[in-house]
Design a protein that fits this description.
The protein is an alpha+beta fold and about 425 residues long. The chain has 11 helices and 13 strands. The chain binds adenosine-5'-diphosphate (ADP) and magnesium ion.
């Protein structure tokens, strides 16, 4: 593998495309292949994949109309899918509980009595139908090397892989151009919001469908526009170390919705649809009397500004100056937005002490992952220091991966690329 990959046993492996395809096909034939009397296993129509992502900067601004800057991970979710002549839907994922589900297209809807993972996997079928697409039933097998609930967006990976599979098997013709991909991304966001009931923004699905290798994706969530920004750390002897804290604080389940509600309330009071559209952010901040509202809005306003600075530095090739911007983002998320936690703070602080140029929590917070911009030759030392810091506190051992900016989702079994 590339230099800078942690050699500790704690790395989260990613599969090659071939391995993902093989595993998806294997699960498909184990699950659905026997029914033709064993004489001839019926193959899937194809295998599609979509990546997890890590956000470089622009956190908790996607639902405020702000910009964010994710890269796709080499870690992907693979879906082997076969269209059916009826309206039945059958799903298999050995990582899920229950591992198998069977129903009809009519069962997949908001408020439907389906396991949560089925909402992620099949939710896009409901939304695409709502958007006017004609969809029939399907059999699908899902395999993934994107860790769940680590803030690396296994949810958008499964939604987008499934949406890409449905698009091609039903000849919707959406995946081939940016406008169509935007329709697929919107269908996946709506599935997560309405079928699963998770009020998330649009960053993860855009990352899964619009990223390019060696580039970060600048997504402007105000108008949905995207731009590519060079992100090639290896060239300058740096690596992006992702630290999965493996902490998940379940007592804070309503916090994401609460942050969102606070932002929306202030925007409404100020007469704008989103905080991004505040005509004079500083004047709004000066007007706010509630200290909590003030802190939340200050995070959003300053984070939007940091994305601009970070992108300008990247475009200028000033990789050496990125660290303090990451650090400032973490401080803002910890103190103003109050979405960090002890595990994230220790990961970030330890990484810096061990040689990272800058570090911050990434994703929604309250657990999940942190990122550390690290000289390649310090990656192992940083990973070891964080592992030690966790062991001293009797916390679960963290896991690591080195994020290389990878490509968006698509068909991966060779045909119709
Ligand atoms: P994250 O996106 O940060 O990994 P989420 O809570 O948003 O965490 O989404 C995780 C959920 O997505 C899982 O609990 C599960 O319901 C669904 N999911 C993700 N990957 C798979 C998979 N391979 N098989 C089945 N369900 C999956
Ligand atoms: Mg998610």
């Amino acid at each position: 593998m590339t230099t800078g990959t942690p050699t500790t046993t704690t790395g989260i492996p990613s599969w090659s495309g071939e391995e993902g395809v093989r595993r998806a096909r294997d699960l498909f034939s184990q699950t659905y292949g026997q029914e033709v009397g064993g004489a001839r296993a019926t193959p899937p129509d194809g295998v599609w994949a979509a990546p997890g992502r890590v956000n470089l900067i622009g956190e908790h601004v996607d639902y405020n109309g702000g910009p964010c800057l994710p890269i796709a991970l080499p870690h992907r979710t693979y879906v082997a899918l076969r269209r059916r002549p009826d309206r039945m839907v059958r799903l298999a994922s050995d990582d899920a509980e229950p591992t198998r589900w069977e129903g009809t297209l009519d069962d997949i809807r908001p408020g439907g009595d389906i396991p949560s993972w089925v909402g992620y996997a099949a939710g896009p079928a409901w939304t695409l139908g709502q958007q006017g697409a004609w969809l029939g039933g399907f059999d699908a097998a899902v395999v993934s090397c994107v860790p769940w609930g680590a803030g690396l967006s296994s949810s958008a990976a499964i939604e987008c892989a499934m949406a890409l599979a449905l698009d091609e098997t039903h000849s919707l013709g959406l995946a081939g151009d940016p406008a169509g991909r935007a329709t697929l991304a919107a269908a996946c966001v709506r599935a997560e919001n309405e079928v699963v009931g998770a009020p998330t923004g649009g960053m993860d699905q855009a990352a899964a469908l619009f990223t390019r290798e060696g580039q970060a994706l600048l997504l402007d969530t105000l108008d949905g526009s995207v731009d590519q920004v060079p992100f090639d750390l290896g060239r300058v002897g740096l690596a992006l170390l992702v630290i999965d804290t493996r902490a998940k604080h379940t007592l804070v389940d309503g916090q994401y919705a609460a942050r969102r509600a606070t932002c929306e309330a202030v925007a409404t009071r100020e007469g704008v649809p989103t905080l991004r559209q505040l005509p004079d952010p500083q004047a709004t901040l000066a007007r706010l009397t509630d200290p909590v509202e003030q802190r939340r809005v200050r995070h959003v306003v300053t984070e939007i500004d940091r994305v601009g600075r970070f992108v300008a530095l990247l475009r200028a090739g000033r990789y050496d100056a990125l660290g303090p911007v990451l650090d400032a983002s973490h401080t803002s998320l910890r103190d103003d937005y109050e979405v960090s936690c002890a595990e994230l703070d220790v990961a970030v602080e330890t990484a810096r002490t061990a040689g990272a140029l800058g570090a911050r929590m990434t994703g929604g917070g309250f657990g999940g992952s942190a990122i550390a911009l690290t000289p390649t030759d310090r990656v192992d030392a940083v990973a070891a220091a964080v592992t030690d810091a966790y062991a001293r506190r009797d916390w679960n051992p963290p896991r690591f991966l080195v994020a290389l900016a990878s490509a968006a989702g698509g068909r991966v079994d060779g045909a119709h690329r």
